[in-house]
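I would like you to help me understand the sequence and C-alpha cells below and explain how sequence relates to structure.
___
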Amino acid sequence: MGNASRLAIWQYITAIILIAVLTGHLIERFPPVTHQSYEQSLSPSTFYSRLKGAWGIGLLLLAYVALFHGLNGIRGMLYEWLPGRRREKVWDALFWILFIIFASIATYTVIALPAPTLPK
C-alpha cells in the first residue's frame, strides 16, 4: 500500500505543476501578451529564437512533467492490475527506462534543433 500512496502523491504533485506550467505556456501564447498574432508566433524564426531561451527550458519542463505524470499513471495501473513485489520492480525499471529514453529525445530536440532555413 505504501507504493500506491507514493504514486498517488506524485500524481497530485505533477498535476499541480502541469497546470501551472501549461497555464503559463498558454498565457505566453496569447496574442495580447505577445503583441503578435498566433500565426506570427508560430513562424519558424520566432519559434526557434524563443526555443533557445527561457521558453525552451519551460517547454522541457512541460515535457518532463507530462512524461513523468503519464508514465507514473500507467505504472500505477500496472501495480493494480498485475500486483506483486517482483512485478512492481519490473514496472519501476520499465518506468525509468522509458522516462530516460523519452526525456533524452525531448532534450535532444530542444538543444539540437537546427536553425530554420527560410525560403528566399
Q: What stands out?
A: The chain has one domain: 2-112. Residues 2-112 form a domain with the 3 helical TM bundles of succinate and fumarate reductases fold (CATH 1.20.1300).
